[in-house]
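ingest -> validate -> predict -> emit
validate: passed (alphabet ok, no gaps, 336 aa)
predict: started
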Amino acid sequence: MKYLVTGVAGFIGNFVAERLCNEGHDVIGIDNLNDYYDPNLKLARLKRIEHFENFTFIKMDISDRIAMPALFAEQQFDRVIHLAAQAGVRYSIENPMAYIDSNIVGFANILEGCRHNKVGHLVYASSSSVYGANKKVPFSTDDAVDHPVSLYAATKKSNELMAHSYSHLYNIPTTGLRFFTVYGPWGRPDMAPFLFTDAVANDREIKVFNHGKMQRDFTYIDDIVEGVIRIQNIIPSKPEPSALSDKESVIEGSPLYKIFNIGNNQPVELETFINCIENALDKKAVKNYMPMQDGDVVRTFADVSDLEKIVDYKPKTDLQYGIDQFVGWFKEYNNK
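emit:
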């Protein structure tokens, strides 16, 4: 099949494109290569997959209202895996319009492209941040997520609502994926694994927010990719009317719309996470305990029962193993 993978120079997009190419699909990857973090890392990721004859990279911004419709019309994609976005919770406080342009306007362009070109399935990245300060754990896709605590989270919730409306109005199968704290080799330099490893390796202190009273459901990149690939093969469909009970026939919502959590289902204390980095580097961290940051949450914890039930999969990578893999890459990439 022919796939569009957006954000192909990004962390998750790069690995998803590699997997699809290895499976023999034709992949068109787009990315605007912006400077939210070092573009050289993005270019290095692209070099990992440029050798595939069935991969084509196009530099393009998803918010471009002229280029995006033209791309869809020309390529006629079978499926779209949309992973491009302006990422980062704290940056959304500093530069909100970047999130509107990429995460709202850009997503609208993706939906319109799918609508007008009969794309068979749109799979898109949401985020665990949509759960905000929810106190019920683990976080379930059945939970209300109406109180985001950052603009980034609000844009991701908006994406889910926009996708639902297009599924309902235009019969487009859409599946949103709420990723939980993804880490691993080639990871983003604005996230804790990279920031902490870089600081400890170079004898700088690390900022430990909320005085370490934090938990994260760290999910290894290979587990994320496996989940994405399995889910994009399970296309939401409308049941036959005769198969519905009277109760089911009046349930609100589009049967072509689905949301999954992809997380490790094992929240880890921040101190434990730091210990794993110390073990991998064989070096102690210098910790600066600080208050909670605006827009952050105390805990994330994924309920992955739907993932297990529908695609027979549950992330399982051990945190120390994953951190060891990340630190090994970090040393090689930075010639340490």
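The domain at 2-184+218-264+300-318 is CATH 3.40.50.720 (Rossmann fold).
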